[in-house]
Structure formats: C-alpha cells, structure tokens
User: What shape does this take?
Amino acid sequence: MTRRRSIAWLLALAFAGVTGLAGAVPAPAQEKVLRVRIGMTGLDPAKLFNIENQTVSNHVFNGLVRYEYEKSGGIVPDLAEKWELSADGKTYTFHLRKGVKWHRGYGELTADDVKFSYDRVLEPQTASRYRGEFKLVEAVEVVDPLTVRIRLKAKYPGFLNKVAAYNQGFVVSRKAMEKLGDKFATEPIGTGPFVFESWSQVVLVANKEYFLGAPKLDRIIFRVIQEETTAEIALQRGEIDVFYALQNAEVIERLSKVPGITVHRRTANHTINMILNATYEPLGKPLVRRAIAHALNLKAMREVFFSGLKGQPNWVLTASFPESAKDLTEWPYDPEKAKALLREAGYPSGFKITITSFTLQPYDKIAVLLADDLRKVGIDASVQILERAAYLAARGAGTPHVVLTGVTGPADPDQPLWNLLHSSSFPPGLNTARYAGIDELLESAQVELDRGKRLAIYRQIQAKLREDVPVVPLYNDVLFAASRAGVKNFAPDPQFTMNASGVTIDK
Assistant: This one.
C-alpha cells in the first residue's frame, strides 16, 4: 500500500485519562475537546488561502451574512440581523446585531469595524488576494454605530456572497488590527463561536458569550497527523471521533466496513487545477497550452491514482454549480496530437518547464504524474516541491511556470472564476496564469439580472476557457469524512471546510 501524507483534518474528543496522539494537550476532566489535523500559514481574512486556514477562520470570524450549510445552504443573517436593498438595486443597508462582543475584551462590534474590514481589502497596500471580489463596491459608509451602507457601482444580484462569512467577507476588529499589526495573523480577534488561544499547537476555546449561544464543545485542537493510516487506527481506537477529508481510497474502503463508523460523502465546490503562467514564453501561446492539455492522461490519474474517487471537471466549475457546462469536457488524452501542436507552435523539440507544488499529498504526487506525461511528448518537465510558506510566497509573486492549486467558492460561480481568472486577481491574487481573456464576460455575468442570459454568459466563459486553456482542471474533489457513533450534527460544507460550533458527541 502506498504511504500517503494525509490532507485530512482529524477531529477528536478527549477526556482526562485518555491517551492522545503525540503532542496532545491534556484536557481537564470532562472537558470536551475537538482535535483537528491542520497546516497553518496565517489567519488574516484579507489574505487567507488554503482550506485549513479557512476552516479555522470559520470558527473565529463572522461575516455580515453566512451560508446555512446545516440546512438548505441559503444565505441567512450573521453579524447583520437584517438588511435592505434600495429601489435601484445598488445600495445595501445592513443593520448589525446589538451587543456582539469581540474576543479578549476588544469591545463590541460596530459599523466602523465593518467599514474598516472591507476598505482594508480594497486598499492596494494590503495586497489582499480578494481585492477583485469588491470590484463593484463604490463605497462603504457608517450610518450609525449599528448600521452600515454599501453602495455599488452597478446592480449585482450575487453581492451578498461577497460579504458572507468566507475570506474577504469576514469582519475583523479595527482596534485589534491596529494594535496587533502583522501579529494579528497569528493572534486573530473575531466574534465567532471559538476564541483563538495558541498558535504553536492551534487551540480554540469556546466563546461563552457568542451571540448565537455558546458552542457545545469546550475546545478544539488543530494538529498534524502525517499518515492517513495512523488516523484510521486512531479513529477505530476511539482516540479521535471524526476523520475529515480522507484521500486514500484503501482507507475509505476499510473504514466503510467497520461497525460503528460512518463514512460520509458529499459533493464539494472544489476543483484542483494546473495553472499555466502566460508570461513564460512557451506558455504564452494557446497552441502550447492546448498541447499540454492533450498530453495529460487525467482519466488514468483519476481512475488509477485516485481509484475513481475524483470527478471529471468542467472548466473550473464543478458539476454542483447549475452554471456548469457539463458537455464542455476536458481535451482528450492524445500524445500524438500534443506533439503535432508543439511542432505547429514552433517547439518541435519541446522546452523546459517546472511544475511547482507543495509538500502535501496528493499535490506532491500529482506533480510527478503530470511531469511524467509531459516528458512523454518531449517537454522537459521538472518538479519543484516547496514547503507551504515558500509555495505561497512564490505563488504570490507570480513567478512559477506552473502551479497546482485548488479553488473553491460558495454557490455563486462568480467567486471561483473571478478569483482564479479575472485580471484584477493577478498576483498577489490567485490568477498566476495572468489571464485576462474572460474579464468582460465575467463582469457582464456579475450584473446580469436575467437568469437565462446569465447562464448563457457562463457557458460562453467556459467555452472560452476550453479554447484558451489558461488552466487545466485536473479533477473535481469529493469530500469524504468518517465519524464514530455518537457524533451528532457534524456537517461538512461544499467549500471543503467545516464549522464545529453545533457538533455534540455522546459517549
């Protein structure tokens, strides 16, 4: 069996006297503790990247609204208890809940905190990855301490997705950010159901003053368990209660047969993509990019390497999006066609290229598979595997020839497409392809009110992406989790994250 480094999170309930995994923090008698496998790089919402950081942030921060994933997945109030939209559809007025407290004595939430948070995302010096998400924001205005007004440049029916509890939508404390500065990323102050306690081993403690009621768990500990097989054994022994985001097909199959353990499967709005940097001369040619698409045996990767657990992508949008053009499939595997396209593009002998990924399975292994396929058509492909922080720095600078990255988003397709492929998301944003070929279409889709016309625009977008190939979508992710009997209200969300505020465990 292949040894795999898990990208899963491990959730566990620990009681006094229970032997935990190496490095565990002893828990007081009867204290309910959730242990979660994680790999952290910082919790500044303006700069969040990767699902581990986003998962921790879900417990610490709130947005003006949130997705009710525990029910229908629709948008419901969060920090804003209600809101109104002006007759012209361009001004939102949000009324904040009264008495919402910041963690650690930083006072109460005000409209000034909301304005500060969203203005900060828009400021170029912040270098937010998500500045483009607020491209249609004209101004954020404080009406009174509990009322904030956001004026848009045009009607945008999907705007509430931008201020939801996710990435740029999270609200931060102005007082804490100004006091802590860069340290805020490792000492975050939010209003969420859990308070950030420590970084060396990421620990969250229940916020007893949470405005929606104190969570059922006392503490969450985010920690690293390198191997899925180790986590599998811990789950069966009762050392952990939930094993989150499994990747290993053999582990999934074994756990599905264990009495008292339930394996959960749900579709996720999460694709893994190969991003081709057009500023590197060979990759600036569409024929070269299409050659690369033909050179990759993605079906074999999904069916053999992933044992059929990953889905075929549809040009960045997963099948869970109604806007996904499911008939616009990937370019077929055809090495001879790839060679012919390279000759036509002026590279009969190929060229050198480096694929950059990071030290986490399956991404490090995928990079090797892709490089092997490229070498078979004459492209001299090498692989660079970086530690997470170095990978993010390189990606933020926009220097790698090729990077592998996941992109996820809420039910509105604007977010993943805009983040990955609009020119306003050039580095330090996520558009390391430096592609600008669908800007006008994306901007038209944002403001189109007619549902049928909007669907037609998104189809145009996906057809254009298939033709230009700025990215090669590799697979649609599927979220697997395993839980022990007694775990209640565990609800992973389609953004590949989770929030444990409603979780209870019966022993």
Summary: The radius of gyration is 23 Å. The first strand starts at residue 9 and ends at 11. Confidence is low (pLDDT under 50) at residues 1-29. Residues 451-468 form the longest helix (18 residues).
